[in-house]
Amino acid sequence: MSEIDEQKSKIDWYKDLFKIYIAALFAVVAGLLTMLTNGNTSLLFYTGLAVTAVLVVVAIFAADTVSKEIRKLREM
Fold this sequence. Notes:
Layout: H1 2-37, H2 43-75
Helix pairs in contact: 1-2
């Protein structure tokens, strides 16, 4: 029974981490949209685009990890 509880807590941790990634992604995109509407496309804008791409990739991997952990829990 303790192994199931450990897996559940791991899944909860991954879910919380995924929420943080999504919140960071929204914050960066909002900042980029503000810069774009003001016509302020400087180096910071392009750095923000790169950060957005990295956050999207990390969020995809986090979602995949959560999915795998849930499948493991179903098999128990």
